[in-house]
Design brief:
The complex is a heterodimer. Chain A is built from nine helices and seven strands; from the N terminus they run H-H-H-H-H-E-E-E-H-E-H-E-H-E-H-E. Chain A is an alpha/beta fold. A seven-stranded mixed beta sheet of chain A has the order 2-1-3-4-5-6-7, covered by helices on one side. Classes of the chains: A alpha/beta, B alpha/beta. Chain B: Pfam families: DAO.
Chain lengths: ~260, ~475
Amino acid sequence: MWDLVLGDRRINSLRLVAPMWNGTRGIHRLGGAVVPEGNQKKERKMLQFLNNHFYDVEALRGYLLQREMSKVHLKNRSFTWLEEQHGPYSAGAFFILKQGGAVKFRDKEWIRPDKYGHFSPEFWNFREVPVEAVDASDCEINYEGLDNLLLLKELQSLSLQRCPHVDDWCLSRLYPLVDSLQELSLAGCPRVSERGLACLHHLQNLRRLDISDLPAVSNPGLTQILVEEMLPNCQVVGVDWAEGLKLGPEEQPQDTASPVPA
Amino acid sequence: VAHTGRTVGRLGEGDWDGKVSEIKKKIKSILPGTPCDVLPDTSHLPPEHSDVVIVGGGVLGLSVAYWLKQLENRRGGMRVLVVERDHTYSQASTGLSVGGICQQFSLPENIQLSLFSASFLRNINEYLAVTNAPPLDLQFNPSGYLLLASEKDAAAMESNVKVQKQEGAKVCLMSPDQLRNKFPWINTEGVALASYGMENEGWFDPWCLLHGLRQKLTSMGVFFCQGEVTRFVTSSQRMMTTDDEMVTLKSIHEVHVKMDHSLEYQPVECAIVINAAGAWSAQIAALAGIGKGPPGTLQGTKLPVEPRKRYVYVWHCPQGPGLETPLVADTSGAYFRREGLGSNYLGGRSPAEEEEPDPANLEVDHDFFQEKVWPHLALRVPAFETLKVQTAWAGYYDYNTFDQNGVVGPHPLVVNMYFATGFSGHGLQQAPGVGRAVAEMILEGSFQTIDLSPFLFNRFYLGEKTHENNIM
């Protein structure tokens, strides 16, 4: 029906064909660069030199940056108009599947798009079946796109691993899922910091929270402790809270895998 | 090139010998081997002509400059000059601010301004994108504001929250039981109702915003100058109103900018002047002759903005409230918020009218904390009974003594002076919206997106207060 897959395929091929523009994207993305470090630095220096000396280069780079941003906005456009015709669950699921994520309806199997971005249209029939789990790893969801995600009122498990545009502002929008959300994973999100984790305290039904590998968190061990205090019923996974602590000469290394009694 | 000041007469008339000696001097100076007069270095002076001169380089002045350049129809169509007296921003309200943003106001215009500012800050890397520069990290804490109300303020709070919800702010009301449930460290004695902002509220780093704006403005071609505005040269025009009264309309055509530690000044020819001088806006307005007239008339209405000193204290309390702490504003007016991960908190309280400290300097009064702030904090949060003050600082509010809301828009008599000042403590959180409104006023002639007509200067003469109930 909505076969805009052709557009997605073109974007994928651009990624393979134009490696030299990694420099432009690398500068404005906080991580997720695939190009090896040495090459990236040389490209960056060259681009910076050209940028400082030629107006055309500056204008071109500005234009390319704007284009990147409008691509992300296009991906996160609103699908809420689908709600009247197909119900909120199908509309939200469609958004996730278009982004490249996977959804699991209650009592059904995971629906995942294949490498061409195709997915089976059977979920349009699931009008009343709520979506239980969403795996939005590596998707380009941002603050506006969460409008569509929040249509899934009975979501129990959400995985936002390595999403490049999920930041602290996005986390402050998750509170409407308080009644149902039990599992949340933010592993590897480059823009999430401890300030965003502070607004997860609304999610009192959360049982499992994964905050491993967050580069923007300034002190992972202390953050882990504070988040555990904030969400007493939740198992917070991912950070070894003893990391960064220096052991005294007489102390034996503790078994840090076991939870600390409150 | 030095002009001698003598008219050059036709050949045969005038001072032939003098002219010959002049020509000889010129040829000697051009020939190599002789020292020539070096042109005086004017790189520290502002340009001689500028379309817009913005007095004050704080967040409001920079925001107006940004939107002027953003909304101009043609790239490079407007020359904007920002004049800032102190390039270290040592006394500027922006840098000394606590950095909070909230939508819990009673006026719809304030709520709209704050909502727009939140979306500006959220998308700051799209608005203030500069190629080659790293993305800005505002260090925004989306933890929200929690305002507590006693019995007598509960009804006002309910109606305020209704207005806020109508405008699109995500605020919810909480009863004392719900408060105790959610924030067990609160003592709800004396609290009848609380309003809690769930989204788009919190606090951020104002220096980052200032730096980002400066960087973007430099890339857009805005001129910056460090100097003090000492004089406006105006030209007047007498006109007749529809009621057959004579009115003198003034227009500023030159601004004298004096350099630091020197008597040197540069007259800058300008078309529009923007008064964004914060706590010192009244002095700038007085220079333009605003308020010089018999009291009770429009000519005699001064700009009622004055500097008010406010203290902020930072303390350490190891057993204090946890990571989820919002910025809590108590019924007594005391407020506090968490700072960082290490059990540090900062807060303060607005003094009552009679206790206003002397704004001559930014010295901190520690007794104020002991007597006026700590008791209220300790009452509200019992964990704060044991705390240790680490540091404190003071900053100015550009306090509008009339109704504690901002002054935006042109002056009725000095036709090309626009105000963007007087926000009494919430200037930082409304700066993007106000900057856009002033730019629209200048470029289009009226407010296009957010209608700030209740904030025009006229209200001081007409006596109509646009009162805001929720200020801290």
